[in-house]
Design brief:
The protein has 216 residues and is mostly helical. Helix content is 54%, strand content 9%.
């Protein structure tokens, strides 16, 4: 699957569990789901032709379906991924999160996937991921190399092929340095202001002492 197809099928998987009253989904609802600003990484801005083209491709691959008939004013769309891959509720939740939010740790997947399946602990989520990685019919997920300065392993899905290597640039470091420098400047300014206030108070004390002497 290409990235658009991954986002589309991920949204169908998500809404199937979290809002079953609105599933199957209309094209308009699916476009809105793809373009959500929450629970999505990256945030995208797909139009209807883009999503419709992805749906056509997914139907040709047997991964989605279309529902029409007298009871539906407009066509509605479904996923067939769980059926094709024989996914249980746990696998469904983990794959959906990986498809919608990219590489994540076990802890992130457990927390974010709780709306679809409430894992009892990290071990249960980790065991499920490892089972999907070791499937005889083909791995569905994989572990990503450690990120510099981190200990936790992040996971990725394989439904769009091998995941791209993560890139690390100096931007976060530069931002941190900038933030640190700004904080240091603010602290220095506060210290200078405090020193000035103390000097002013001492001057007022001296003036008051002189004033009292006039009445002694």
């Amino acid at each position: 699957m290409n990235p658009v197809e991954v986002r589309v099928i991920g949204c169908l998987l998500e809404k199937d569990i979290t809002t079953p009253e609105y599933y199957p989904m209309t094209l308009n609802a699916l476009v809105n789901a793809c373009n959500q600003k929450s629970n999505r990484d990256p945030v995208v801005s797909f139009d209807e032709p883009t999503v419709n083209e992805a749906l056509t491709s997914l139907r040709q691959k047997g991964l989605s379906g279309i529902v029409t008939g007298p009871g539906n004013r407009v066509p509605k769309f479904t996923h067939r991924l769980s059926e094709r891959l024989n996914l249980g509720r746990r696998e469904h939740a983990l794959l959906t999160e990986l498809m919608l939010r990219g590489y994540q740790t076990v802890g992130e997947l457990r927390t974010r996937g709780a709306r679809m399946y409430d894992f009892s602990d990290l071990d249960e989520a980790d065991a499920c991921l490892r089972a999907m990685m070791e499937r005889e019919s083909g791995a569905l997920v994989t572990q990503m190399p450690h990120r510099p300065g981190t200990k936790e392993v992040r996971w990725a899905h394989l439904l769009g092929g091998a995941p791209e290597p993560e890139t690390f640039d100096a931007a976060p470091v530069a931002s941190f340095v900038h933030a640190s420098t700004g904080a240091a400047d603010r602290i220095a300014a506060l210290e200078a202001e405090t020193a000035a206030l103390r000097a002013e108070i001492e001057g007022l004390k001296a003036q008051f002492a002189e004033f009292r002497k006039q009445f002694e």
